Amino acid sequence: MKIGTISLSSPFVIAPMAGMTDTAFRRLVKRQGGCGLVVTEMVSSEGLVRGIDRTLEYAEYTEEERPVSIQIFGGDPQKMAAAAQVVEAMGADIVDVNMGCPVPKIAKHDAGCSLMRQPEHAAEVISAMTKAVKIPVTVKMRAGWNDRARNAPELARIVQDAGAAAVTIHGRTAEQSYTGLADWDLVARVAENLSIPVLGSGDCIEPEQVIDRLKYTPENVASGFSRTNYRPISGVLVGRGVLRNPWILAQAADIAAGRAPREVTLSDRGQFLLEYIDMLLSERVAEAEGFRHVASASTAPARGRERWVINKLRALCTWYSKGQDGGSHLRVRINAATSISELRGIVNEFFSAPSLAGMS
Ligand SMILES: Cc1cc2nc3c(=O)[nH]c(=O)nc-3n(C[C@H](O)[C@H](O)[C@H](O)COP(=O)(O)O)c2cc1C
């Protein structure tokens, strides 16, 4: 699949997740294989343009993650265009626009999913950005604002006409937030009617589901498709499924290649967390020149590193422990950890302790 000039080796993508998909996590997932694109956590256009350290950090990525898409949010066309130029100057492959965030803090500033309620304004944002940069500009949106306004099909066409190189649809409305189910029929319908790649997002927990979403055809969705010119969904973004199982994209790629999905042992799961801890602790330490891409204004603020790493592990384990035998026990213990050595000890003990099986 190609997004503008950027070729993706696989149609499976790590979805952007604020607070979760930092550069270390993305690298670790990418190393397992099967991942064609990574998207950063959403980054404020305002913060990028003003050079705010925290914002610039969210946009950092490393060479091994390529191709990389940096997602930005905002509602002012000129600021979004300027932010896209910062993203381009950082060397990112793609700049993605968040039109899906339902959180009031974001949506009340004409940003995130609010843009879906103002299609003409959304078109102005995309048009200003595509004029300002050479890299592809893409959009991630929801099904619509609410059930009375499921306008993703119209808006997707509008942003395509404004120059967007690809569109992702998370098939829920802003009002639904994360309740109910993502509407993949809607994603397929958008794909049918656009000439740019359309990717879908929502509710893939098992690798087989990732494959099923790509196989949507006129036969297995509701009526209304022209069968001769059917254009399939081009790719699948996996969010919470990757937080639960970082191997899901690799397993989907196995299935797509006709192989059995690789088995992930308890010890693999423990090793993943230990590596994540090590990577978070050593971020920016002893990296080869050119490895990490930061905006020129970034001053690399030092943070209370251990506390930050513990909080990161707590956040990940909320998802990582779901469906895991003894998962609630792991969550409780990690939430109570106060040092990195304690954290490592808990992980080592839990993931090498078959006796915990069945304790969830
Ligand atoms: C913790 C969390 C943070 C998220 N942050 C973002 C974000 O920054 N930008 C965005 O476009 N979507 C964000 N999303 C939405 C996901 O990218 C994805 O579209 C959604 O979770 C549905 O896919 P899933 O069922 O595979 O998780 C977030 C979702 C979660 C759970």
Could you please describe the fold and organization of this structure?
By secondary structure, the protein is an alpha/beta fold. 41% of the residues lie in helices and 14% in strands. It contains 15 helices and 13 strands. The longest helix is centred in the C-terminal third of the chain and has 16 residues, at 266-281. The chain is globular, with a radius of gyration of 20 Å. The chain binds flavin mononucleotide.
What's the short version?
The chain has 360 residues and is an alpha/beta fold. It is 41% helix and 14% strand. The structure holds flavin mononucleotide (FMN).
What strand line-up does the widest sheet have?
Answer: 3-4-7-8-9-10-11-12
> Tally the helices: what do you get?
15
Largest sheet: 8 strands, parallel, barrel
- Through-space gap between termini: 40 Å
User: What ligand molecules are bound, each kind once?
Assistant: flavin mononucleotide
Helix content: 40-55%
The SSE string, one letter per element, is EEEHEEHHEEHEHHEHEHEHEHHHEHHH
Round the Cα radius of gyration to an integer and report it.
20 Å
Shape: globular
Tally of strands: 13
Helix vs. strand class: alpha/beta
| Share of residues in strands | 5-15%
> Could you report the average pLDDT, rounded to the nearest whole number?
91
Uncertain runs: 355-360
